[in-house]
Design goal:
Helix content: 55-70%
CATH architecture: Orthogonal Bundle
Shape: globular
Number of strands: 3
Number of domains: 1
Number of helices: 6
Structural class: mainly alpha
Strand content: 5-15%
Strand order of the largest sheet: 1-3-2
Amino acid sequence: MKDGIDMASYAQSWLGLVRVIHQVEAELARVMQSAHGLGLSEYRALAALAKAPDSELRMQDLATHLQLNQSSVSRMVERLERAELSVRDVCPDDKRGVYTVLTQKGRACLAAAEVDYEKTLEAAMKAHGCQAWLSVAMAHAQ
């Protein structure tokens, strides 16, 4: 016991939370892929681009946002480009900088996928009893 906390129980609770997160992520990934042909990172990239000024982000900023390495983001952006959901653009101030920009087709794809993402997330959170935990986490984030 440390500072009045049973560390074994604490560790068990943490592992339980990690398992729930993985299960929710797996369900979101399954729905995004089957209903929209998008990987979960691809969906999240489209969402990040939609929220960014001018619907564009530097590749390195997108990698940081998604917590992916540069190589993974480059491959993902290539898939988005092949599907015409985004395009690359060179930074006018720094020719070495590369942006990825959301296309109209990408915005439409995101709008369709968002409905299923939110519905699936809500159902998964309810199924795992996460609403109270998420409310506490959101209150602490503010």
